[in-house]
């Protein structure tokens, strides 16, 4: 059973910074990619940033140049450095892992963390 443990959320003033972290633990054979998504009240969950095992990154236009996603493959950990935070960034941030649970290429699955609240005040 895979568990994603998220930390780093909290309350910050506009212009401030936060660093989120997510550790994937449990029975993972290998991780293909990890990422961060967010969901504000009344809105759909949206992609924030992703990073593959090879280091390829993708960012939502709304966070480009402000957020940076990094990973430590050996520790199955992903980080999200959030700078110049805006009130619009307020949301629950969810960690996601795309991984194989066995050596079979047909064992690829996706798993979500429970989320961590990020609140940016004006």
Number of helices: 0
Question: Which structural class do you get from the secondary structure elements?
Answer: mainly beta
Along the chain, the helix and strand elements come as EEEEEEEEEEE
State the major sheet.
7 strands, mixed
Give the C-alpha Rg.
14 Å
**What is the helix fraction of residues, given as a range?**
under 10%
**What is the molecular shape?**
elongated
Q: N-to-C terminal Cα separation, in Å?
A: 40 Å
- Spans where pLDDT lies below 50 across 5 or more residues: none
Strand residue content: over 45%
Work out the number of β strands. 11
Description:
Strands 2, 4, 5, 6, 9, 10 and 11 form a seven-stranded mixed beta sheet that branches. It contains no helices and eleven strands. A hairpin with a 6-residue loop joins strand 4 and strand 5. It is mainly β and 122 residues long.
Write the layout of secondary structure elements.
Elements: E1 3-7, E2 10-13, E3 18-25, E4 30-39, E5 46-52, E6 57-59, E7 67-72, E8 77-82, E9 91-100, E10 108-112, E11 116-121
Parallel strand pairs: 2-11
Antiparallel strand pairs: 1-3, 3-8, 4-5, 4-9, 5-6, 7-8, 9-10, 9-11
Give keywords.
122 residues, mainly beta, 7-stranded mixed β-sheet, 4-stranded antiparallel β-sheet, 0% helix, 57% strand
Short description:
This protein has 122 residues and is mostly beta strands. The protein has no helices and 11 strands.
């Amino acid at each position: 059973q895979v568990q994603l443990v998220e930390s780093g959320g909290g309350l910050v003033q506009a212009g401030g910074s936060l660093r989120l972290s997510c550790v994937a633990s449990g029975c993972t054979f290998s991780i293909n990619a990890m990422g961060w998504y967010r969901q504000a009240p009344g809105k759909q969950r949206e992609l924030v940033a992703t990073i593959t095992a090879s280091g390829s990154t993708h960012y939502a236009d709304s966070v480009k140049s402000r957020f940076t996603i990094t990973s430590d493959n050996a520790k199955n950990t992903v980080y999200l450095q959030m700078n110049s935070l805006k009130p619009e960034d307020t949301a629950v941030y969810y960690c996601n892992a795309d991984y194989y649970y066995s050596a079979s290429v047909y064992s690829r699955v996706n798993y979500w963390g429970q989320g961590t609240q990020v609140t940016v005040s004006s």
